[in-house]
Amino acid sequence: MTAARVWWSAPDPAAVHDPLLDDAERERCARYRLEADRARHATGRVMAKRVVAAQCGVEPEEVSVIPDPEPTEGRPRARVRRQGAEAPWISITHAGGVVGVALSARPCGLDVQDVDSITPLIGSDLVFGAAEQAELARLTGADRARTACAWWVAKEATLKALGLGLSESLPGVPGKGAVVRIDLRDGGRRLSRVVVPAPPGHLAGLAVEAEEAIDLQTFCSAPSRIR
């Protein structure tokens, strides 16, 4: 099995002033108009540095989070400034009042969404394929919203694990399936996916570039308490 860990936290407005943020991260926070967006971004970065530090047995100040180089879509990668320490792959996500960070030895993608926020997208052919739309049309109310949200986070997590973001077509990514194959220009990739327990009102999914099942552990902690 492939091990993966996921941490959840509420956005912490104080994280904007956390000394673990570097200049680029502070500038990014400053560009957000809303305080909530600044808190979500800062909390995700601080959490990522603390969980990587705990995993690698180093100090959080020795960890940086930088954009992955091309050809990916700038997904975050952790770097540890200590000889012999190898950082795991990470993924950062946030929605509403939730921030999440995933770690794995293989490329991974984590996505979380507020269930209610997906409702306007249920009929969109930019998100769901024809067969998916037909299946959603047979559902009603809360079942329809939760199914659509579960498929959305599975699709997003898959693209994040591949470093593609939304540059690829969402309808072409299956919303269902514990193991999926995605055909890319440089060949096919196989990923394992799992539903991640998330805070109330949200659904989350994790994808890892591996064929074996995912051994998942989840934690809830304020960033400052991660050791």
Annotation, overall tally of beta strands: 10
Q: What is the class in the CATH system? A: Alpha Beta
Helix content: 25-40%
Q: Report the CATH superfamily.
A: 4'-phosphopantetheinyl transferase domain
Give an overview of the whole structure.
It is a single chain. With 227 residues, the protein is of the alpha+beta class. It has helices at 23-31, 35-56, 115-118, 130-137, 141-161; strands spanning 2-9, 63-67, 76-80, 89-95, 98-104, 108-114, 179-184, 187-196, 202-208, 214-220. The chain is globular. Helix 1 (23-31) runs antiparallel to helix 2 (35-56). Strands 4-5-1-10 form a four-stranded mixed beta sheet, covered by helices on one side. It starts with a strand and ends in a 7-residue tail after the last strand. It has a single domain, classed as 4'-phosphopantetheinyl transferase domain (Ribosomal Protein L22, Chain A, Alpha-Beta Complex). The chain is 28% helix and 30% strand.
